[in-house]
Amino acid sequence: MSASRAAPSLPDARVLAVDGLTVTFRREDAAFVAVRDLSFHVDRGETLAIVGESGSGKSVTSLALMRLVEHGGGAIAGGAIALRRRGGAVLDLARATPSTLRTVRGADVAMIFQEPMTSLNPVFTVGDQISEAIALHQHKSAGEARAETLRLLDLVRIPEARRVFARHPHQLSGGMRQRVMIAMALSCRPALLIADEPTTALDVTIQAQILQLIRGLQDEMDMGVIFITHDMGVVAEVADRVLVMYRGEKVEEGACDAIFAAPSHPYTKALLAAVPRLGSMRGTDAPAKFPLLRFDPAAGDALVVAGGDATAASGDAARESVLFVDSDAAAASAASTASTASAASAASAASAASAASAASAAPTACARPAIDAGAPPLLRVRELVTRFPVKSGVFGRVSQYVHAVERVSFELRAGETLALVGESGCGKSTTGRSLLRLVERVSGSIEFEGREIGALKGRELQALRRNIQFIFQDPFASLNPRLTVGFSIMEPLLVHGVASGRQAQARVDWLLERVGLPADAARRYPHEFSGGQRQRIAIARALALNPKVVVADESVSALDVSVQAQIVNLMLDLQRELGVAYLFISHDMAVVERISHRVAVMYLGQIVEIGPRRAVFETPRHPYTKKLMSAVPIADPARRHAPRTLPADELPSPIRALGDEPEVAPLVAVGPAHFVAEHRVGGAY
Fold it and tell me: What does the UniProt entry say about where the protein is found (predicted)?
């Protein structure tokens, strides 16, 4: 684009004004419009939340503001992006030259990306990457940049900041990588911060602290913030104004309080009705499906409720034309009409939203055979210990260990869901990886169907991995960028000899449909999908072999509430039909409450509370469990200023010197199958 156009003007209080932004992508012989005629503004010290389902154009909008969309095959086809730089000059980013953009990115506009593993350079340490940005934009010496980097790492509550400075991205948990990204984005005190799902990978306690941190820095620096998220609880916590996107267009915009109190567009009402609420399962023992909202063509595209278990009759929620199942093909055909809704539709939507809220408040448990507590467990873990060596010195000798998992024990039966919850770095993911021998344990036993997995080799180990599948936390890093998603899903079918040829292709098409994607998505590559769509692809791949156990590591954390509801319902359907067991690793307490039979709370590699879901959620006994519950954001802006107690001390480090063994508190029974870590002075909490 030409840079010759005169610089646009902005009111003094305005940091960004977007006017008529249109973004297109080339696909074969046609141009697909991903964002159409979008206009909005952000003032100094203001937070604008952009919300919408996966594939609605939220992230494409953020990439267009940074002029990064062009590197992914997109183009800004029209519109202006006026930015007030830190020095006061106004620049049209849509027409800025590459050399100008290099000075703007990081210094005037910074971005927290959705997937930290693919955004951080795997070759350099995280400390060097942050220091480089500080030295480049603030012209500081190497020593000054290092000191500022350590300060920022402490600010985002990374324990052992000096040690983390020297680590590479793959050596950190997903939540810690996200905190590194946040520190990097804030390092140069930008005029505008774009946060694309910045708290997706964070547990609720760290999320609350990071939100508080961003608000504090925003007040201090008078910084404008664009917060892109699918978490309506987070929106209620941070947003001054809300912009709702649907299929590439703005369908509603207004003050946060007004949007939550009286949404006008049917889609906004649907989003708010779909928010999972902590406490919605009170009084029930078994998991329950989420109610879904869908368009009913016979009712003039009004929204109607597809109740939680009403969808089970068809066995396929994706076939119900659910409002939230979005595909690029559907977006292209419907973009021109997405922003209009009749008064009748709005009235029907209000009724549907009320019905959905009622259904959410009084869920109906899924009808499935009772779990036989007397039957042998499918999976038995006893005294599991997994540690990682820390080497130092000239000769690279082991001087310390990261105590990731310490004497963890649990059982999992067919048709059961055990949720592992806890803070980032507490050992949840390492526990899951140990089950597949993706990391080797130090001690303890893991038995699958009565056989110790440590003794399995060759074909027996391959058979184990067919029966225990893993849904990884980062879908972009776990999908091969050189393969079409169809082949990625088909590959396990071919490797294990389950299907081939047309039979395998039919299975791929069926799996894509089950997770709410069109069959023609099989011909596309991972980079052509949004983060939420990639996660659906990863779930389809994990389900391809009909495994007996699925380890779901933050499998729905990257999904908007609507698609999240579909995936949880799908998992419950498959559990009922096939008896599959889930080890559900998550930090989303509202989803955990909905899907799990039992819950295990982990802290610093140890289980501190385990028991039936109802007992743990309704009568939590351990102080850490209570802290997790109190940190869950609530989708109510009126509670934004309610007093909250967040931990101010540094998180304890799991790194210990050789011979320094952590003390593991024994579990004490406090109820039927409900155990809590013993208090250090004796007895239960």
Answer: Cell inner membrane; Membrane
Same domain membership, residue 180 and residue 96: no
Count other C-beta atoms under 10 Å from residue 680's C-beta.
7
Report helix, strand or coil for 160.
Answer: coil
Q: For 425-460, what is the HEC assignment? A: CCCHHHHHHHHCCCCCCCEEEEEECCEEHHHCCHHH
* Digit-coded pLDDT (tens) for 568-586: 888 898 888 888 999 999 8
Shared domain for 442 and 539, answered yes or no, is yes
- This model's pTM is above 0.90: no
**Do the beta carbons of residue 561 and residue 230 sit within 8 Å?**
yes
- Are both 252 and 298 inside the same structural domain? no
The helix/strand/coil state of 534 is: helix
450 phi and psi angles, rounded to 5 deg: 85, 0
The verdict on residue 216 lying in a domain is yes
Number of structural domains (the chain) is: 4
* Cβ-Cβ contacts under 8 Å for 433 (sequence gap 6 or more): 439, 470
Helices 623-630 & 204-221 angle (0-180, nearest 10): 50
CATH of the domain at 76: 3.40.50.300
Distances in Å between the Cα of 176 and the Cα atoms of 189, 513, 650 are 21, 34, 14
Question: For 215-268, what is each residue's pLDDT tens digit?
Answer: 887 888 889 999 998 788 889 988 999 999 988 999 999 999 999 999 999 888
Q: Which of 137, 237, 121 is nearest to 181 (CA)?
A: 121
Selection from 442, 437, 428, 440 nearest residue 460 by Cα: 437
For residues 16 and 51, membership in a common domain is answered with yes
685 belongs to a structural domain: no
Question: Do 529 and 625 share a domain, yes or no?
Answer: yes
Distances (CA, A) of 230 to 54, 368, 530, 622: 8, 31, 13, 30
**Which residues form the domain of 527?**
379-632+644-677
Number of H helices, E strands in the chain: 23, 25
Do residues 251 and 277 both lie within one domain? no
* 3-state secondary structure (DSSP) of residue 570: helix
Length of the chain: 685
Q: Enter the tokens of residue 608.
A: 């501190």
CB 112 within 8 A of CB 198: yes
* Ordered strands of the 30-43 beta sheet: 30-43, 14-27, 74-84, 90-92
The answer to whether 400 and 657 have CB atoms below 8 angstroms apart is yes
HSE on the CB side for 644, CA within 13 Å?
20
Which pLDDT does position 671 carry in this prediction? Answer: 94
Q: Which helix (H) or strand (E) holds 42?
A: strand 30-43
C-beta separation of 142 from 131 below 8 A:
yes
Same domain? 83 vs 151: no
Selection from 367, 262, 349 nearest residue 577 by Cα: 367
The DSSP output letter for 630 is H
Query: Which residue is it, tokens 């609605």?
Result: 56
- 244 in the same domain as 98: yes
User: Maximum Cα–Cα distance for the chain, whole Å?
Assistant: 77
Sign, Cα dihedral of 25, 30, 32, 33? positive
What band does 342 get if pLDDT is binned at 50, 70 and 90?
A: very low
Q: How would you list the strands of the sheet with 655-657, edge to edge? A: 451-452, 443-448, 379-392, 397-412, 655-657
Inside any domain, residue 535: yes
Q: Whose CA is closest to 328, among 21, 37, 24?
A: 24
Q: For residue 515, report the phi and psi dihedrals to the nearest 5 degrees.
A: -100, 15
pLDDT digit string (tens) for 483-529? 999 999 999 999 999 998 999 999 999 999 988 889 999 999 998 88
From first CA to last CA, the distance across the chain in angstroms is: 65
